[in-house]
Every structure is written in structure tokens, then in C-alpha cells.
Design brief:
It contains six helices and two strands. By secondary structure, it is mainly α. Among the domains are: about 80 residues, no CATH class; about 35 residues. It has a two-stranded parallel sheet. Helix 3 runs parallel beside helix 5. The longest helix has 28 residues. The chain is elongated. About 10% of the residues are buried.
């Protein structure tokens, strides 16, 4: 009996999540614009936003552009919640860069530059980190790390840390 009641409560709690409508950021903007033009109250807009789920991330620039259509603090809070729930999703295609990923030769050149930077500045970086540590841990001496000759093989761990 307890198991049945537990399952029933779980189903009742999950029902509002299943009834939420998934929309894109563009559709959200159109919905907010129509609600704004219909002079809906803050409570009505907030209730409408509670019923929605986004299928893509609501980025900060998009969120800023939607603020003009919000009538009050309740709808702003619901839009913030909607933005937080969508933060793990992929951004809309319009927010993605048009430049393609670098080819293999460019990637190797980038890694070689990073390796050269680390080779020149590793001791300075470690000294800076050590100066920010507590006084008792300043006695630790970092072990110098020899970087590999190939840029495709980078050290995964510093010895002595």
C-alpha cells in the first residue's frame, strides 16, 4: 500500500513537468510580444511562462532583449527560472559562431604555442600559485616538469602536486 501511494505521488508530481510546452527562444519572444500587445498582467505572463520549457538555451543577450516585454517582477523572476533551466541546453543556431573549427594543422599550431607558453612561464605560474597559498604550504618546492617534444602529448599531471 505504501509503495502504491509513493508511486501515485510521484506520478502526480511529474504531471506538471510533462504538460509543459517546449518552445524555441524565437517562439518565446513571439509569445511575450503577443502577451505584451494584449496588455496582460504580470501574474498572467508569469503563469504563462511557468507552462513553458525551452528546447534551446536562453542566452544573456536574448534574455536582455526579452526584458522589454515583461510587465513586472513576477514575470522577470519566471524568465530567470526559465533561463536557469535552459542553461544546459545547446544555444540557438543564431548564437553560434559562423567560423568553422580549425583544421588539424591549425590545431597543432595552437597546441605548440600553448606548449611554448607553458615552457617559458611554468615556474612563474607555480611561484605565483605558491605565493597565494597559506604560509605553512609555502615551503613546498615545485618539481620542474619537462615538457614533451611533441605538441600532441601534453602533461596530464604535475609531479609534486
Amino acid at each position: 500500500m505504501k509503495r502504491f501511494v509513493g508511486i501515485l505521488l510521484l506520478l502526480v508530481a511529474a504531471t506538471p513537468l510533462c504538460s509543459a510546452k517546449e518552445i524555441t527562444v524565437r517562439e518565446l519572444k513571439e509569445a511575450l510580444l503577443s502577451l505584451h500587445q494584449a496588455y496582460k498582467t504580470d501574474e498572467e505572463v508569469a503563469t504563462r511562462l511557468k507552462e513553458l520549457n525551452l528546447s534551446e538555451e536562453l542566452t544573456r543577450p536574448a534574455r536582455s532583449s526579452l526584458a522589454q516585454y515583461l510587465p513586472g517582477p513576477l514575470s522577470e523572476k519566471q524568465l530567470d527560472i526559465l533561463q536557469g533551466r535552459s542553461s544546459g541546453l545547446a544555444p540557438p543556431p543564431s548564437d553560434l559562431p559562423d567560423t568553422p573549427a580549425p583544421d588539424d594543422a591549425t590545431q597543432k599550431a595552437i597546441l605548440a604555442k600553448a606548449q611554448g607558453y607553458l615552457a617559458r612561464n611554468m615556474m612563474r605560474i607555480l611561484a605565483l600559485q605558491r605565493s597565494n597559498l597559506s604560509p605553512s604550504s609555502r615551503t613546498m618546492r615545485p618539481t620542474p616538469v619537462a615538457l614533451p617534444a611533441s605538441p600532441s602529448v601534453l602533461p596530464t599531471r604535475l609531479r609534486g602536486w
